[in-house]
Amino acid sequence: MPAPSTVILGTGSYAPSRIMTNDELSRLVETSDEWIRTRTGIRERRIAESSERASDLGAEASRRALADAGISPNDIDLLVVATFTPDQPLPSCASLLQKKLGIPTRAACFDVNAACTGFLYALDAACAMIASGRYRRALVVGSEKLSDVVDWDDRTTCVLFGDGAGAVVVGASDETGRGLLGSLLGCDGAGADLLCIPGGPRDPTAPPGARSDKLQMKGREVFKLAVRCMDEAARDILEQHGLRADQISVVIPHQANQRIIDAIAEYLELPLERFFVNVDRFGNTSAASIPIALDEARRAGRIKRGDLVMLVAFGAGLTYGSALLRW
């Protein structure tokens, strides 16, 4: 008997109410609105309150996704949370989120840390577990509070990131040809030092004054690898499924930098209009980036029944991945 299709039943997203503009950032570090916009495309980002944690952001996005799917928390038997900024090291963010949402104790709950590619890793894991037949309804969440791990004295990184969460409800379906058609995930650990939070003794290769408990990034190297890996991940999954790029209705890329998205569009020979972009309003929200954009794109009418949707991302690890969905 063939495995059931795994389809997205509902989407939701949440961003903190506080907006930090580039002008506000320029009062913290030596930068300017023009400098940030021309190099990243970012105009503003959301910053959570000190009392808000990743599980709080994820809970709001999850409630919206559950409502959109018309499903009760009691119907969820699998919860996967993608994050590298959990509330605390132990227990998992998923455990805390389960309690806040009232998901039954019979549900499996765990975290995934694949940085900006985390949502694709979590989605793939959830869909595989549903396809096994042992689970029926999954809640997949990407939630990050990056303002806690950004060095606000480092202008090369603090201008890039923001806080937020996105979620999808995934379920089994007897309808063939819809849902997750396939995914491609990978990692190149040789580049792990290019984007990291060392967390231990100070890294001797880090910039002078860099804190080991804060995000460190070698921007030029990361930019080049992000473009290459996202382009290859997109091309490879299209080849695996015998598809052309121009058959994709909407591309939901990781929202790290407008110039990266522009480069991917050029290499795939797709008009930029096929890409859903919100990096200007949210900055890089890591694992929350794709589910926030996916929710916004769907609610804006950019994604319609039958559309072929591509998700593609790159993150610390160095992780990368792509996924194809038939809506």
Question: What report would you give on this structure?
Answer:
This protein has 327 residues and is of the alpha/beta class. It folds into 2 domains: 5-173, Thiolase/Chalcone synthase (Peroxisomal Thiolase, Chain A, domain 1, 3-Layer(aba) Sandwich), CATH 3.40.47; 179-326, Peroxisomal Thiolase, Chain A, domain 1 (3-Layer(aba) Sandwich). It is 31% helix and 24% strand. It has 10 helices and 13 strands. The protein has helices at 22-25, 33-40, 54-69, 93-101, 118-131, 155-158, 219-240, 258-268, 279-282, 289-299; strands spanning 5-14, 19-21, 44-46, 78-82, 108-112, 137-145, 163-173, 179-187, 195-196, 216-217, 250-253, 308-315, 319-326. It has a 5-stranded mixed β-sheet, sandwiched between helices. A 4-stranded mixed β-sheet has the order 8-13-12-11, with helices on both faces. The longest helix is centred in the C-terminal third of the chain and has 22 residues, at 219-240.
Strand element count: 13
Q: Strand portion, in percent? A: 15-25%
Question: What strand order characterises the main sheet?
Answer: 1-7-6-4-5
Mean pLDDT: 95
Major β-sheet annotation: 5 strands, mixed
Put simply, the count of helices is 10
CATH superfamily of the largest domain: Thiolase/Chalcone synthase
Integer count of domains: 2
Spatial extent as radius of gyration: 19 Å
**Oligomeric state of shown chains:** single chain
CATH class of the largest domain reads: Alpha Beta
CATH architecture of the largest domain: 3-Layer(aba) Sandwich
The residue fraction in helices comes out at: 25-40%
Class derived from helix and strand content? alpha/beta
- Spans of at least 5 consecutive residues whose pLDDT stays below 50 are none
CATH topology name of the largest domain: Peroxisomal Thiolase, Chain A, domain 1
Reading the helices and strands in chain order gives EEHHEHEHEHEHEEEEHEHHHEE
Between the first and last Cα atoms, what is the distance in angstroms? 23 Å
Overall form: globular
